[in-house]
Amino acid sequence: MSCSPGWIRYLVASALVLPTQISAQDSSLPFVYATYFECDPARESRVDALTRDAFAPLFDQRLAAKQIMAWGWLAHNLGGNWRRVSYVVAPSRTAVLEAQSGLAKDFRARQSKALTEFNQICPTHDDYLWQAVATSQPAGQTAQARPPAAYSIYYECSNARESRADTLVMQAFAPIWTRYVKAGGLKSWTWQQHIVGGKYRRLLVLDGASHEGILASTDSVLAAVAKERPAEGREFSEICPSHQDYLWDIQVAKP
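The chain above was modelled as a monomer; its predicted structure follows.
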């Protein structure tokens, strides 16, 4: 998918955080508009500079005006073809789409040169609109005060059984994840559902102080699931049999 001129497609991100054991039907949880970029690895530092110097002030203006709840910028550490992620968070689908459209206009009008250079370095991207289903953080603190590292798992699932996957997460897995948050191995976890976008239907985001710490906690969580909830673990794997892992460096995460 090639980038359109302007940042209208270029908002938002992967890995965010939101309130524990909340119903998948709870429409009060925030929405995240995420854009996943494929970039020239040799010029990624320039993209980071453009984001910091040209685009960040425009994001910050929307944040100060309370048009968005948070925004962020993530850098690839390990995983697939996506190299950078931009995200914005808003309390409703309408609000997040209006923020995206407004930012696109701002970028074109006020940072057209920087935007052209950005598009040359990152010529393709994928857009996703997510909404949290459950999380270890209050909804009002979504994507705020994030630590340096994130681990995102993007799942392909059976559309007809997605709600069952959400139930398994909230009933069987959320207590185990939360246990590791309380123990300090993880900073937070969030389970998100696909609203609009590509093939990935669910997203698990784990934040922590380091990638090594997150992965160590993940190993322990998997062992706990296998011991404590093996039937639920097998059922979940049947519903969501394929996934893609990414480790992200959180470069910007502003409330």
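The longest strand covers residues 242-254.
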